[in-house]
Amino acid sequence: MTFSVAFNWLIALFSLVPFIRFGDDWKKSLQLPPKDTRVRTSDVTSTKGNEFEDYCLKRELLMGIFEMGWEKPSPIQEESIPIALSGRDILARAKNGTGKSGAYLIPMLERIDLKKDYIQAVVMVPTRELALQVSQISIQISKHLGGVKVMATTGGTNLRDDIMRLDETVHVVIATPGRILDLIKKGVAKVDRVQMMVMDEADKLLSQDFVVLIEDIISFLGKGRQILLYSATFPISVQKFMVSSHLHKPYEINLMEELTLKGITQYYAYVTERQKVHCLNTLFSRLQINQSIIFCNSTQRVELLAKKITQLGYSCFYIHAKMMQEYRNRVFHDFRNGLCRNLVCTDLFTRGIDIQAVNVVINFDFPKNAETYLHRIGRSGRFGHLGLAINLITSEDRFNLKSIEDQLVTDIKPIPGSIDKSLYVALPGDRPVHQETWRRP
Ligand SMILES: *[C@@H]1O[C@H](CO)[C@@H](O)[C@H](O)[C@H]1NC(C)=O
Ligand SMILES: *[C@@H]1O[C@H](CO)[C@@H](O)[C@H](O)[C@H]1NC(C)=O
Ligand SMILES: *[C@@H]1O[C@H](CO)[C@@H](O)[C@H](O)[C@H]1NC(C)=O
Ligand SMILES: [Mg+2]
């Protein structure tokens, strides 16, 4: 607390009295990468106007930051860095691509004491790819710090190599939960003096697959440890963790708009698996669809359904996770531009659908959890327009339907014989082209 107050004073002092700043000569020797001139969205540009130099970081760390091509802190970095430096727990809602790793790596590296040869910080990530990406960044920004030892350890690699590596000095470990727990239990990774633990993509880390491991890992950490938690979504699992005793009065950061089901009328129709296509056909002919997105639960089912829809005489695009990212982006872009009326896909959107013209979303296969449901159906509040969500429910989905309704505190009603157009057709009078006119010759 007192440290944090003193710290804020320091920041104030430095910004009020610019001439106290050190000479800027060191900047001349920086090896800066070419400037990134791509267009950036407001989640990385709407800042308070702080500078990295405002945080009293070690000059060597600043050099690494600037050489990464990071010129100014992003919003999540502005929120996180001073708080993390003060030692307080953080609970942040932020998506990736917004400077999240810098938000925790900068304060973490600043606080590593090189005179001590034990593990001082642990970053938990859900996947090997993310572990490698984060360790790459930390190695780059700590390059001038002279000897911060960063180690990435994940499942699927040789355990012996990791054990040998831990015999030497390691200051920062970036790990997936299973592997680090293994090393801790073997007594190889000693984490009792860890002062900072980060959970990146915490929604995944606290999912059923991992949560027990995470609890276990935390039990081995030292008493005064600080936890920084970053998550794009806040499902029940994350909320449970928040109210547990692991976090101590966390500083909350929320840089994302909530997804909402407001304005979306949700229906279900009981069907058997074999009736699904017929049911979809009926929906197509009865509803006034401007654009629709239809979700299936697997790549194969997406391809099959897209074929069926085309055979029925409706235009459709499809995308799924096994398609090349570039191609996927193009299809999505074309769909967004209205080149096609229907899109069949698997769960690809990490955020809700932000296409105004989509007024109907159909769960051809009903999702298993509430988070997925929300991502498929929900819209961010700022769009605030009407829409229809229709769920095809087989007997196997009954339980999930009830459970998702409960978790999201929402109402999914049986589909009525006819649906009032004012619930989902944007402008009365300005009627979208009827589905039939989109039929292929
Ligand atoms: C961003 O985060 C989401 C959810 O946490 C994840 O599914 C996705 O793969 C991540 N994307 C990248 C590019 O890391
Ligand atoms: C997808 O849905 C079909 C039909 O409901 C079901 O048979 C299949 O097991 C589901 N697959 C997955 C991966 O959930
Ligand atoms: C209907 O879709 C078209 C093409 O995507 C779009 O240009 C138009 O604005 C949409 N109309 C409404 C009312 O959303
Ligand atoms: Mg994320």
From TrEMBL:
The gene is LOC112230019. Pfam families: DEAD, Helicase_C. This is RNA helicase. It comes from the Eukaryota. Its EC number is 3.6.4.13. Gene3D superfamilies: P-loop containing nucleotide triphosphate hydrolases. Residues 263-423 form the Helicase C-terminal domain. The lineage of its organism: Eukaryota, Metazoa, Chordata, Craniata, Vertebrata. It comes from Oncorhynchus tshawytscha (Chinook salmon). GO terms for cellular component: P-body.
